[in-house]
Amino acid sequence: MAPAQRCPLCRQTFFCGRGHVYSRKHQRQLKEALERLLPQVEAARKAIRAAQVERYVPEHERCCWCLCCGCEVREHLSHGNLTVLYGGLLEHLASPEHKKATNKFWWENKAEVQMKEKFLVTPQDYVRFKKSMVKGLDSYEEKEDEVIKEMAAQIREVEQSRQEVVRSVLEPQAVPDPEEGSSAPRSWKGMNSQVASSSQQPSNLDLPAAPELDWMEIGPSLTFIGHQDIPGVGNIHSGATPPWMIQDEYIGGNQEIGPSYEEFLKEKEKQKLKKLPPDRVGANFDHSSRTSAGWLPSFGRVWNNGRRWQSRHQFKTEAAAMKQSHTEKS
């Protein structure tokens, strides 16, 4: 009888020797396993002619299982913030260790010889992939430069529009000339200088004095209701100190705020008692009542060791001895 062997594809133990690899079940499992790996290998072989370079993302750390070598292989090749798609898988497929493991796997499992070339990458193809990878890096840098230029142009446009808005706000407004009656624009600086010079020169015109308004005068459309200021109390508009600036006046310097420490402990004990069951023994005991020394029962007492009935007998013997001593004294 042939020794027991374990098939990793079928995941079972067989005793038929080499005849198991020719069975239908084993060939079906082998074909399904190779077809699951084939799409990734074909996508990697397409990258030989045109390598794709992208910005690094955490999804590029994904690994795939190499059926021939029995180990995990990184699918992409990352360096810094750049990733070459399928670079890690192509590097593994072109290694001599993978070629040796593939030949052994095909020999042990009797797979189709035509499919073996699909899972191998020749050194010439890997050199061609390196050249396309260099071209991909150059094209990626060109695209990044174009993106940077576009962003710079947008930033310049936004800055220019912002400066135009600021300039339009800071430009002086057009003021009509009161002497000529024309609408010619004049600057605020010129108007201010003219006003300053006219104020320094003596005026030859006798302008009528402005009439003084009598606020107590009652007009036909206005009604005076009197001043609304509260006597003795000012406000911030009249120059008084704001309420939030007034210092609080305490009645006593050593006045305590809140309960004392003893009251706090009592309240804490009350809160503990509230958590206990209300129907417990002694919950309704009146602690204010006065009790004499003979309130204990005559059949026993508090004991620290032994059984309670022993303390009862001891209590009786001590009571008898005490009674006998009283009779002897009398």
UniProtKB/TrEMBL annotation:
Composition-biased stretches (Polar residues): 190-204
Gene Ontology cellular component list: centrosome
Top-level taxon: Eukaryota
GO biological process assignments: chromosome separation; mRNA splicing, via spliceosome; negative regulation of centrosome duplication; regulation of protein catabolic process
Disordered as annotated region, ranges: 169-207
Residue runs in coiled coils: 137-168
Name this protein carries in UniProt: Centrosomal AT-AC splicing factor
InterPro entries xref list: CCDC84-like
